[in-house]
Design a protein that fits this description.
mainly alpha
C-alpha cells in the first residue's frame, strides 16, 4: 500500500472515530442531533457528487 493510500485510510478512519465521539458526547437531544447529521450528510453527498462529476468531465476531456 502506498503512503498516500495509507494516509487516506487513516484520514477516513480518524474522521469516523471523531464523528462517532462527537455524536456520543453531543449536548443536544437525539432528535435534533439526528436531524443535523442527516442535513450534513445530504450536503456532503451533494458536494461529493459535484466533485466526482467535475473529475469525470476533466478525465473525459483529457
Amino acid at each position: 500500500m502506498s503512503n498516500s493510500n495509507k494516509f487516506m485510510t487513516a484520514l477516513v478512519a480518524a474522521t469516523a472515530v471523531g464523528a462517532a465521539a462527537g455524536l456520543l458526547f453531543a449536548p443536544k437531544p437525539g432528535k435534533v442531533t439526528r436531524r443535523f447529521v442527516a442535513m450534513r450528510a445530504h450536503r456532503m453527498r451533494n458536494r461529493t457528487e459535484g466533485y466526482v462529476g467535475s473529475l469525470r468531465e476533466k478525465m473525459r476531456d483529457s
